[in-house]
Amino acid sequence: MIRWAHVLPSSGHPGVTRTVGSLRGRYWWPTLAKDVKGYVSSCSVCAQSKAPRHLPRGKLQPLPVPQRPWSHLSIDFLTDLPPSQGNTTVLVIVDRFSKSCRLLPLPGIPTALQTAEALFTHVFRHYGVPEDIVSDRGPQFTSRVWRAFMERLGVSVSLTSGYHPESNGQVERVNQEVGRFLRSYCQDRPGEWARYIPWAEMAQNSLRHSSTNVSPFQCVLGYQPVLAPWHPSQTEAPAVEEWVQRSKETWRAVQDSLRQASGRQKRSADRHRS
């Protein structure tokens, strides 16, 4: 069961805390946390693939907490990947409220219009037009075409400071997680990363996030997918009103958790910043 929760592509080699969280939703035994810690600590794939860490500089200024899912987005590109199914780039879109992500393989770095069309096709039509989009100062996001497109949709454009990726830390963190995931499963077959992108997205959206205390799936959809696909569901579909009410309560709880986590992260980070 630990192997299911840690090694399978639907899990994505998460750390100790999130592996324990995945298991505790459906299983329990007295030494669960201890067994998971020993298993993850001895995982050679994790040791080879985890991203390096260093202390950032400058005081942390958290972005405002959104009111609902998919109203405030962060976007960025993973570039210079080995060719895979004709793709070398991944467009990463992160919902700052639920921490949900969408990963879109692309044949190369797109133009501003192609980026806007990809967002509309794969994100806006599913979740609605957002209120704000945070991005770096890449040429796609500083062009007149991008600004005109977003202005017509009523979307405000927020650009990060130059050479300061921490301003868009949410998507930078997802970039690291996706990169670690692809290294874990494609280290011997780098040309096959494109077929693992759906698994990487599923794994990222299935794991409990430390800021919200729920997974992105739970926050947006109101339920958590089963750990293994052959496990039958143990709950029946609720009535519409009950589902709506539960979703609203989940969003309120997530918003409170995000505010507390934001303040906690700022206090913790500022102790180690100059």
Automatic annotation (TrEMBL):
Q: Which SUPFAM superfamilies match?
A: Ribonuclease H-like
Limits of the Integrase catalytic domain: 65-224
Q: Name one GO molecular function term.
A: nucleic acid binding
Task: Give the residue ranges for region: Disordered.
Answer: 254-274
Which InterPro entries does this one have? Integrase_cat-core, Integrase_H2C2, Retrovirus_Pol_polyprotein, RNaseH-like_sf, RNaseH_sf
Q: Which PANTHER family match?
A: INTEGRASE CATALYTIC DOMAIN-CONTAINING PROTEIN, PROTEIN CBG26694
The name on file for this protein is: Gypsy retrotransposon integrase-like protein 1
State the organism of origin.
Oncorhynchus tshawytscha (Chinook salmon)
